[in-house]
Specification:
- This protein has 336 residues and is of the alpha+beta class.
- 61% of the residues lie in helices and 13% in strands.
- It has a domain of 101 residues.
- It is built from 16 helices and five strands.
- A five-stranded antiparallel sheet has the order 2-3-1-4-5, with helices on both faces.
Length: 336
């Protein structure tokens, strides 16, 4: 049986000796261990000039055996790398059957230093993470992931200019790092440069895939920028995708569903679609999670009343009054 397979990523090698060794071993293992049953061709992925193994994005149908062979071979190659990562998915009817994240795992000083920084980062020890990532870069200046992760550390420390420098360095070295574009978009939006933010959210979408949480985070953030610019059709396009997406339990985007339906209702109202807008605000309340801080009941009842008023429904005042009880000044002004 064949399954949809997606593989993308990049591994970097810090010297010609390591590159030559992994190049030779890739060929040997492909023929000897896997009998040429792998999904990527050696001549397509190795770059001798850059000393990298790069898979921009492989999408195809493959057997479980071919997928496992390919992942195993790439995992072996990662032992010789000093930076980078490769992600591989095997999917059947939208369900992920197998997923593998491949990163360098060795006792190389650069690899160990980066892992140290990553551990500090995950534990919220930002000063220690910053120092560790800087030391990683000192050891290997082309470490795109160290720049990207240091960028996010600087973001948490509110060092925005330093963060932007790091994100720019990351994508200059490796233009496939979606998180770096997301960071650039975040900074641009923070500076109210909405066009620049949208451009980088678009790059985030291009460099990630719909199986990743980041893809949907970028989709809804992009929609928010379009709303601020009153680009209703573009906001509607993004929100339609987001609201129709079925997120798994544990996906952080699941808690954004109510909020997404709510702002989609507002956008549809601006587009002159009040009936569809009412359906979306009803769905917002259906998806409302008391633990989610993104959805405001006051805002929800305000939109509901606003839409009903547009439709000429007599009970619109009840919703606006509920919004006022919950503290909505906009509802108070509208009912005024």
């Amino acid at each position: 049986m064949f399954y949809k397979t997606i593989i993308q990523g990049r591994l970097s090698f810090n010297n010609e000796k390591s590159f030559a060794k992994v190049f030779k071993m890739f060929e040997y293992r492909t023929e000897t261990y896997y009998k040429n049953d792998v999904l990527v061709a050696q001549e397509d992925i190795f770059n001798e000039e850059l000393l990298t193994l790069t898979i921009p994005r492989f999408v195809g149908n493959a057997s479980d055996k071919s997928f496992r062979n390919t992942v195993s071979l790439l995992d072996y190659c990662a032992q010789f790398a000093v930076s980078g990562e490769i992600n591989a998915w095997m999917i059947n009817e939208g369900k992920v059957l197998n997923y593998k994240n491949i990163q360098p795992e060795s006792d190389k000083a650069v690899v160990m230093q980066f892992k140290k920084g990553d551990d500090f980062f995950k534990e919220g020890q930002d000063d220690e993470a910053l120092e560790a990532f800087s030391k990683t870069i000192e050891k290997y200046d082309a470490h795109a992931q160290a720049y990207e992760r240091r960028g996010w550390t600087n973001m948490r420390l509110k060092n925005y200019s330093d963060a932007l420098y790091d994100f720019n360095k990351a994508v200059k070295i490796d233009d496939s790092i979606a998180f770096a574009y997301y960071g650039k978009a975040f900074i641009a939006r923070n500076e109210n440069n909405l066009k620049e933010a949208i451009a980088n959210f678009e790059l985030t979408l291009k460099k990630s895939i719909a199986l990743e949480e980041l893809y949907w985070k970028a989709r809804i953030k992009k929609a928010e920028c379009h709303i601020e610019l009153e680009e209703w059709d573009k906001a509607s396009f993004d929100l339609k995708f987001f609201t129709k997406r079925k997120f798994k339990e544990g996906d952080k985007n699941l808690k954004k569903k109510a909020y997404a339906h709510m702002i989609y209702s507002f956008v549809l109202l601006q587009e002159g679609e009040p009936k569809e807008a009412l359906q979306e605000i009803e769905k917002a309340f259906e998806h409302h999670d008391k633990n989610s801080r993104m959805f405001s009941e006051a805002e929800g009842f305000y939109y509901k009343g606003l839409i009903k008023k547009e439709l000429g429904k007599r009970d619109y005042k009840a919703d606006l009054k509920k919004a006022i009880e919950l503290g909505s000044k906009k509802a108070e002004a509208l009912l005024g």
